[in-house]
Amino acid sequence: MIKILIIIVALLAGLTLAPELSANKGYILLSIDGYTTYETTIISAVLMAIVFYFILIAIEWVLRKLLSMNSVTRGWFASRKTKKAQKNKNLGMIALFEGNNKQAHKLLEKSAPRSDSPALTYIAAARAAHNQGEYELRDQHFQRAYDEGKGSHLATGLAWAELQIDAKQYNNAQKTLSELEKIYPKKSRISELYLEVYPVIGEWQSYIDLLNRKRSPLFLSEEQRTEKLVTGYLHLFQQKAAESGEALQLFWEKNMSRWMRKELAYQKAYLDAQIGAGNDLFAEKFLLDKLKKQFSIELVPYINQCKISIDEPFISLLEDKLLNDADNALLHQTLAYLLVKEEKPESAIAHLQESIKTNPNVQDYAVLAEQLQKQERVDEANECYRLGLSLAVSEA
């Protein structure tokens, strides 16, 4: 009903306005700089405007079609380049695993920007460059990998540090790990790599602190952790002993806990460090104190390792221990060597003879033979030389 009313109104308006418009057509004059260029009626101008409008619509449609075709073309070329990049990436990975690093680097570097995983591709390219000794180029690829994706920062940093360690660039690796630790403080792999770096650069205190601080993330058994701690303290002791015997002694008394000072492994590490640095007086004092307070047969060999200044206290101590352990070859041997130093050949011979009964060795036979010669017991000395030589041949 409404549509019919609109049509009727339009017809009535046409019937009313048409005669008026036809009688008064009016005109449009276009003039530039006072010269008439075009003149037409209003109706003709309106019709021309309508025609021009439809022409513009047609041109727009044609342009849209052309642009649409161009977009499809661009998409096809882009898809083709992406597929080619993916193919080159796969070929590069295969070449890397096959050891063809030069070809791998060329393919991976070229395909990385259009790869479906640019960061991983750059990491692989970095490894190929590393394998060729191109460390600066390797670092450039790692930086690109780092910039490509936030989700791969940890993987990129760890791979970077691993290759720096492989190239013996330990200070650079430490810096890389330090930056990673600020962002990922609980990642166990960072701690594991630190344990590789610290020993090489001599950061033994940091090594020990890490073992104490990161027990769970390192996934070490208690036995493994203890072994690494003892190793760490041994090298730390050596650093202190290299400064002075007093420096190590002070560190032992002030920084080592009571239970550690009672542990045999740490006592041996202390003695190894002091003797190795030539601080024999500190080692002698420490050794005598420990043997008197907490005698351990495992500390006895250190008596002959360090240059004892006063033998008598050790001789008395060993003689007392032999009263309750008369068949101990190590006690007899150690005491014999002290008696040799004290120029008591008869007593030394007696203890060496007891020692070789259960623990025959070339050195003891040689020392025994020498002491027998001093006592002009030539036949016995020759027999010791013969037995020592036979033992040396059998062990060779």
Describe the 3D structure.
This protein is 78% helix and 3% strand. With 396 residues, the protein is mainly alpha-helical. A two-stranded antiparallel sheet has the order 1-2. The longest helix has 57 residues. The relative contact order is 0.03. The mean pLDDT is 85.
Q: Which tags fit this structure?
A:
single chain; 396 residues; mainly alpha; Serine Threonine Protein Phosphatase 5, Tetratricopeptide repeat; two-stranded antiparallel sheet; 20 helices
Write the layout of secondary structure elements.
Layout: H1 2-23, E1 27-32, E2 35-41, H2 42-98, H3 101-111, H4 118-131, H5 135-148, H6 153-166, H7 170-183, H8 188-201, H9 204-213, H10 222-243, H11 245-255, H12 258-262, H13 264-276, H14 280-293, H15 302-305, H16 312-324, H17 329-341, H18 345-358, H19 362-374, H20 378-395
Antiparallel strand pairs: 1-2
